[in-house]
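The authors assume throughout that readers already know how a fold can be written as discrete tokens. For illustration, here is how one protein appears when written out as sequence plus structure tokens.
>
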Amino acid sequence: MSSGERERTFVMVKPDAVQRGLIGEIVSRLESRGLKLVGGKLIEINRELAEEHYAEHSDKGFFEDLVEFITAGPAFAMVWEGADVTRQVREMMGATDPAEAAPGTIRGDLALDLGRNAIHGSDHEDPGSNEREIDLFFDEGELIEYERIDESWLYE
């Protein structure tokens, strides 16, 4: 694929968006962009996994709130594949604070509050964050290798 090497990234529909019935809307937006879903599952995140997932925030005042929120209900964990997929997903998500997220982004359209911002995606500025997060939530056997029929129309 000449438009860039394929990569994988971790994305999670957070408990607020699951409770609001937004899994399908979020998956649809990513698929419509041309990104390929290679793994997905509805999960309940326990405290240990939440603390490991948010470890980089463990010394911040909002850490406990993050852990409480992400363990409060089911989440939908996913792995997406495509060229420059981590950066693309981050742009589609919009600013972390939905009040600052542009209309047309997931957070700009579907969220109102920083503490309930609908979606998590690996950080494209932190090399290795996508692999670390994928490994936290998925076993290799849970990820599928396949070619979508439209890939020749998506990539040069």
